[in-house]
Specification:
One of its GO terms (molecular function) is hydrolase activity. With 209 residues, the chain is of the alpha/beta class. The chain has eight helices and eight strands.
C-alpha cells in the first residue's frame, strides 16, 4: 500500500438534481428511485463543506436540455432514444425546477451544464479544471453506472486521476451501482469520503501497490 499526494484536487458533484433525487422529480415519479439518498445527500453535502473549508474547488455538473416549441429536447442526442419514454415529454429541461440542484446541497464554486452523461462532453469542464491546475478529481453524485462512470472514464482518458467517494454516489440499481464501482477501480480509485476528507488540506489518495 502506497500513498500518492495529488498536486491539486477538485470535487465534482454529478447531477444531484431534483428530477433525479427529489421525490417529486420526474424519475422518482416514474418509479426510478436512487437508493440510500437519506445518507448519500448529507454525506455529499458534508463533502462539499469539507472541501470548501480546505479551499478545494467544488464543481456541480447539471444535466439541462434545450427544447423546441413543443418541449422536445433538441440537444440530448441518442439519450432520448435510449431512455425511458417519459423523458421525451418532461424532465431535465433547462430553466425548470427539475433541472435545479437539490436545495439541501451547499452552493458550489462553479456550475457546468451538460447534455450527455459525461461531464466532459462538449462542456467547459476540462478547461475549467486545467485552469485551476487540478490533476485529481473527487467524484460524487448520481447515477453511479451512468453519468458518474461516464465522467470518470472521460477523466481518465484526459489524464486526470479520480477517486469516487463511495458513500456519496447512488443509482437506480444497487447491482449496477456495485458493478460500476468495481469497474471504475480499473481506471481510478474508490474510497469513502471520510477516508479522504478527514485528513489535512493535502488530501491523500490511497493507491494499491
Amino acid at each position: 500500500m502506497t500513498t500518492t499526494v495529488p498536486g491539486k484536487a477538485a470535487l465534482v458533484v454529478v447531477d444531484m438534481q431534483n428530477d433525479y433525487c427529489n421525490a417529486r422529480g420526474v424519475y422518482p415519479r416514474n418509479g426510478l428511485h436512487c437508493f440510500d439518498m437519506d445518507s448519500v445527500v448529507p454525506a455529499t453535502a458534508a463533502a462539499v463543506t469539507a472541501c470548501k473549508t480546505r479551499a478545494i474547488p467544488v464543481i456541480y455538473l447539471r444535466m439541462a436540455w434545450n427544447t423546441d416549441a413543443h418541449g422536445f429536447p433538441i440537444d440530448a442526442g441518442l439519450i432520448i432514444e435510449q431512455s425511458r419514454p417519459f423523458i421525451r415529454s418532461e424532465g431535465l429541461r433547462r430553466g425548470t425546477w427539475g433541472a435545479e440542484v437539490l436545495a439541501e446541497m451547499p452552493s458550489p464554486d462553479y456550475v457546468v451544464e451538460k447534455t450527455r452523461y459525461s461531464g466532459f462532453h462538449n462542456t467547459a469542464l476540462e478547461a475549467l479544471l486545467r485552469g485551476l491546475g487540478v490533476d485529481t478529481i473527487y467524484l460524487a453524485g448520481v447515477i453511479t453506472n451512468m453519468c458518474v462512470e461516464a465522467t470518470a472514464r472521460d477523466a481518465f482518458h484526459r489524464d486526470f486521476r479520480f477517486v469516487v467517494l463511495s458513500d456519496c454516489v447512488s443509482g437506480f440499481s444497487r447491482k449496477l451501482h456495485d458493478a460500476s464501482l468495481e469497474t471504475m477501480q480499473i481506471f481510478g480509485r474508490v474510497a469513502a469520503s471520510s477516508d479522504l476528507l478527514g485528513r489535512t488540506s493535502d488530501l491523500t489518495m490511497l493507491q494499491s501497490g
